[in-house]
Amino acid sequence: MKLYMHPVSTACRPVRQFIAENGIKCDEELVDILKGAHYQEPYVSLNPSRLVPMLEDGDFRLTEASAILKYLAEKYDLPSYPKDLKKRARVNEAMDWFNTQFYLNYGYGLVYPQIFPHHKRRSDEAHAGAVEWGQQGARNWLQILNDHWIGTQNSYLCGNELTIADYFGSAIVSIGELIGCDFAAYPNVKRWLDHVKKLKSWARVNETFNGFVAGNKGKEFVRV
Ligand SMILES: N[C@@H](CCC(=O)N[C@@H](CS)C(=O)NCC(=O)O)C(=O)O
User: Fold this and answer.
1) CATH architecture entry for 85-200
2) Which amino acid residue places its CA nearest to atom 6 of ligand 1?
3) N or C, which end of the chain has less CB nearby within 10 Å?
């Protein structure tokens, strides 16, 4: 198996983390999205969406981080994707919620417009309005994550067992660190994230990402 990836990518980090934690044998191929390699052959023919990650398992290719996590967990029969119908449905629900509701406002509304030049709006006014919209939405979803998904009792998103939803969600929530979020206003989120970060491969998998976080330290950002 081979994972086409970039180490800083929000969508690649949970997949790499899952592979590392579970000792899954999988080669990696760097697709340098910062240099536009995903727009060039051969990658563009393999994945016309021009995004990473992409998993190759023999002649089977799979994109979408959430789908890849489910495929790997199923292929290796791992407990982090429970077989019980309702437990599995809850994990799917959490992943869909992160991938749609949460990520839209938090990632594309708040974080990315402030750190990626190509996400910046055309005028300062439009930009400030978009970021404010993202901030409001992100605060709403973080509060729901804090109170409803995690709450005061749970160690993880779907109870007290680590699931693939935690791999997926923690990669998304941690992008707030790029704009200096410390999640102090969301104590259950902070406790959960700190807990997931204790995974033995977290530091290694997130080395490049943490370099970006360090590079943004001290800069002014709109935060949650
Ligand atoms: N929904 C996709 C999103 C993948 C995605 O957005 N990948 C980003 C990196 S995090 C990418 O390849 N960006 C390249 C670009 O936008 O040009 C997934 O979850 O896998």
Assistant:
1) Up-down Bundle (1.20)
2) 51
3) N
